[in-house]
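Lecture notes, continued. The same structure-token format from the folding unit now serves as the input rather than the output. Read the line below as a description of shape only.
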């Protein structure tokens, strides 16, 4: 590129005489060779954040010896107590009466249900049922440790719950009061005498579900297999491993999200049998 310079001064502008007979020389500035463009770093492509996969949303490869798919069905026992009569206190154990895995070709029968002489065990579900008029019912349960639990309900009330290891074995007295009339009943809670799993709390849209383990050997390592679905063709989700406490029990919290809505089968391979429970996460 040629660069021309012009000088400007005050007064006239005169052209100095030429000192050479040769044509006026034109001076030029050498042109730099074209330079290669400097490579610019390519900006990273924008990353679209992917939603974090929840534990129940996983689809892991089953560990060795664990089936990828199971067919599981279960029946549930009735409460076995009548709430249509006068004010009273009756008890009924609740548990699946038959658990059948068609692929394993095995059937497990639980203890008979609905018999008042059958004492419940830690880890089982017990329903306390009340009759009475269509008026509020105040209920107090007093345990062998003197701890009292209070609930309030109405006519036809049923109080179902899983009996956790925090409740000491022994005799529990349940008193129901309605309009000045009081009745009582009692049950005896026995220690867990065999491995079992149950749900202390169902899943919520954003929170956790509590799975109860009882009756295992002290400090035993237990593998919990989770399958997506119930009532046949459940597919493997993941496996969790935990260690129970010195009394053979544990509570494991499974986190749940709004994307986990549905039913899941929980399975444990205990000595000589398989244990199952159903976890439901609401829509």
């Amino acid at each position: 590129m040629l660069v021309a310079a012009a000088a400007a001064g005050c007064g006239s502008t005169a052209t100095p005489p030429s000192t050479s007979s040769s044509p006026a020389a034109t001076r030029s500035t050498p042109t730099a060779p074209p330079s290669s463009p400097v490579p610019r770093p390519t900006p990273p492509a924008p990353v679209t954040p992917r939603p974090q996969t929840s534990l129940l949303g996983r689809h892991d490869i089953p560990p060795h010896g664990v089936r990828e798919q199971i067919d599981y069905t279960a029946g549930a026992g009735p409460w076995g107590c009548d709430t249509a009569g006068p004010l009273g206190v009756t008890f009924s154990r609740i548990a699946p009466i038959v658990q059948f895995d068609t692929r394993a070709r095995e059937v497990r029968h639980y203890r008979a249900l609905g018999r008042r002489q059958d004492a419940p065990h830690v880890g089982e579900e017990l329903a306390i049922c009340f009759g009475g008029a269509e008026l509020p019912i105040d209920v107090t349960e007093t345990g062998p440790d003197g701890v009292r639990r209070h609930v309030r309900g109405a006519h036809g009330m049923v109080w179902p719950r899983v009996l956790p290891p925090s409740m000491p074995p022994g005799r529990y007295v349940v008193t129901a009061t309605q309009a000045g009339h009081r009745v009582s009943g009692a049950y005896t809670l026995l220690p867990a005498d065999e491995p079992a799993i149950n749900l202390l709390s169902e899943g919520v849209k954003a929170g956790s579900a509590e799975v109860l383990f009882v009756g295992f050997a002290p400090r035993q390592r237990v593998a919990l297999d989770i399958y997506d679905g119930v009532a046949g063709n459940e597919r493997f989700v993941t496996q969790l491993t935990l260690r129970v406490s010195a009394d053979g029990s544990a509570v494991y919290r499974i986190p749940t999200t709004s994307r986990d809505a549905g039913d899941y089968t929980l399975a444990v391979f205990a000595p000589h049998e398989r244990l199952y429970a159903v976890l439901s996460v609401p829509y």
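Point for the exam: The domain at 74-189 is CATH 2.60.40.3080 (Immunoglobulin-like).
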